Every structure is written in structure tokens, then in C-alpha cells.
Amino acid sequence: MNRFVVQKHHATRLHYDFRLEMDGVLKSWAVPKGPPAGPGIRRLAMQVEDHPVSYIDFEGEIAEGSYGAGKVEIWDRGEYELQQQEPDLLTFTLHGDRLQGEYALVHTDAANWLLLKRKER
Ligand SMILES: [Mn+2]
Predict the structure, then answer these.
(1) Domains in the chain, number
(2) 12: Cα separation from own chain's centroid
(3) Among 45, 51, 60, 67, who pairs with 29 as Cys (CB 3.0-4.6 Å)?
């Protein structure tokens, strides 16, 4: 299984960086309101640049004056199973400490995606 991480990032604007280990990199989305707690909630997830896999364990302080300055803490981590991988749709099951179950990322336009939790089957 591949790994995922959610890093809570206290930058100028608080957001949660949702990252999936995929194809040798961390595919990354910035989620301003954080991952949805339950089904029926859609959260804007802006795709950002891929990060190196080594970043998966990063916690700490990004220095003042650097891009993304502020504290980064690991909010959740674990493994995931990929179910569907299409250009505009990813579905996967998360096995994290906080996030458990089936989620989807749906591409809407430009860098914008929606992160949602799917109903239990
Ligand atoms: Mn960030």
C-alpha cells in the first residue's frame, strides 16, 4: 500500500496539505477547511506542486521569509488503497489515525478539486 499524510500548515492562511504517495512523488492538494469529517461534505482542494516522498515525515517550522512560512504539523498519516485513477477522478480508501474510509478527489476546473468522503456501502 502507498502512504498518505495530512500536514496542518499554519501559513499566512491556515490550511491542510493533503498528500498521496503516487508514482514516486507526493501528489499534493491544499485544503483550506481540512478534510471532510463525514459524507455529504465537499471541501475545496487546490492542487499544488508535487513534493518529494521524503517530505512525508516533515514537521517543523518553515522560516520567516520563505514560501509557506509557518509551523507544519502532521495531522494524520497512514496508508491508502487506490480504487480509481482517472484524469479527473481519484477514489481511495484511507487507513489513517483520523481519516478512515472511502474518499474521492474530483477535478472541477484549473487547479481546483473537491475532496469528499463517500457514503459507507
Ligand atoms: Mn502548505
Answers:
(1) 1
(2) 18
(3) 45
